[in-house]
UniProtKB/TrEMBL annotation:
UniProt keywords, alphabetically: Thiamine pyrophosphate
Protein name listed in UniProt: Transketolase
Residue ranges constituting the Transketolase N-terminal domain according to the UniProt record: 52-305
Gene from which this protein is expressed: tktB
Record InterPro entries: THDP-binding, Transketolase_N
A GO molecular function held by the record: magnesium ion binding
Cofactor(s) needed: thiamine diphosphate
Superkingdom assignment: Bacteria
Species, as recorded: Cellulomonas soli
PANTHER family named among the record's database cross-references: TRANSKETOLASE N-TERMINAL SECTION-RELATED
Keyword Iron: no
């Protein structure tokens, strides 16, 4: 079966594309947190969005037979918090190319499915487009491409490139005298790339208070623990020594993430480095903190179990 995908949010209409199977139900488009909502309502909105993203993303990976669901689940809460509340960004600003919008760079581009699904829950791309993930001629590639989706700010995938790009966009804003901010999401294994440390040094030197780097500190990389491969610790001390403010938070706690991002731009004049303590595969029991789920594809039975666990957790949240 082929269906023409609505072009919303895509740079051009890709035309008829073979579609993946439909999910059990299509993702709810929640959009930004309501204006004037109190903190509890904001957190509840973000929790609902993360739930929607995870239950849709796990089905996408199963249906496509490809993806990085473990690392996608570990950054879901960070992405949702940024796109649906923290950043000065909206689908309208993206469509109009508003130069003053905040920027986000997903340096760990292999987690593209999480980004696309957050863009769908936020109203940036049509939910139906998720059914084209990694299909021939799709705009939703295995790594994000800025020439294909308007909300994507940088092509990423080769690790160690996102932070240098983000430093460049932050320098541009500084030169322009603009208040726009740049957020960049890094994998922790990715920090073994030397280019990150050049970028950290430059950002500290230039006092890029409009820049916020978030490291998805799930302690796992492609095939092993980060600590067993090329250890990063003491990470906070190292980054502080490069002239950054460092904040450590539970990367699955939306309220804690809101507090961390509320400090950007930092009054200190320094860039902000958020160490988001996460678990690969969070919160699904058979995935969480297992390195195999870097690139593993869930079976139909595992999808069913994941959905049941996510539904149960969401029900528990609503009862609180
Ligand atoms: Mg990692």
């Amino acid at each position: 079966m082929t269906v023409t995908v609505p072009p919303l949010g895509l740079v051009h209409d890709p035309g008829p594309i073979p579609l993946l199977p439909a999910p059990d139900r299509e993702i709810a488009v929640l959009g930004r947190t309501p204006v004037g909502a109190d903190r509890d309502a904001v957190v509840a909105h973000l929790a609902q969005a993360s739930y929607e993203v995870r239950r849709r993303a796990v089905q996408t990976v199963h249906d496509a037979g490809l993806g990085h669901i473990g690392g996608e689940f570990s950054i879901t809460d960070v992405l949702v918090t940024l796109y649906l509340h923290v950043m000065n960004i909206s689908p309208e600003q993206v469509a109009e190319g508003d130069p003053e919008r905040d920027r986000v760079v997903l340096s760990k581009g292999h987690a593209a499915n999480a980004l696309y699904t957050v863009l769908a829950v936020g109203g940036y791309i049509a939910p139906e487009a998720l059914r084209t993930f990694m299909q021939p001629e799709s705009m939703l590639n295995g790594h994000p491409a800025r020439g294909k989706i308007r909300a994507v700010e940088a092509n990423t995938g080769p690790l160690g490139h996102g932070l240098p790009i983000a430093v460049g966009t932050a320098v541009a804003a500084q030169i322009d005298g603009s208040p726009r901010r740049t957020f960049v999401l890094l994998g922790d294994g990715e920090l073994q790339e030397g280019s990150n440390w050049e970028a950290l040094m430059t950002a500290g030197h230039r006092g890029l208070s409009n820049l916020c780097a978030v490291v998805d500190r799930n302690r796992l990389q492609q095939g092993a623990r980060v600590a067993d491969t090329n250890d990063l610790e003491p990470l906070a001390d190292k980054v502080r020594a490069f002239g950054w403010d460092v904040v450590e938070v539970d990367g699955h706690d939306h309220a804690a993430l809101l507090d961390a991002f509320a400090g950007v731009p930092a009054a200190s004049g320094r860039p902000t480095f958020v160490i988001a303590r996460t678990d690969k595969g969070h919160p699904v029991s058979y995935m969480r903190d297992h390195v195999a789920w870097h690139h593993k594809v869930p079976s139909a039975e595992q999808v069913t179990q994941a959905l049941a666990e996510l539904d149960a957790l969401a029900g528990g949240q609503e009862e609180k």
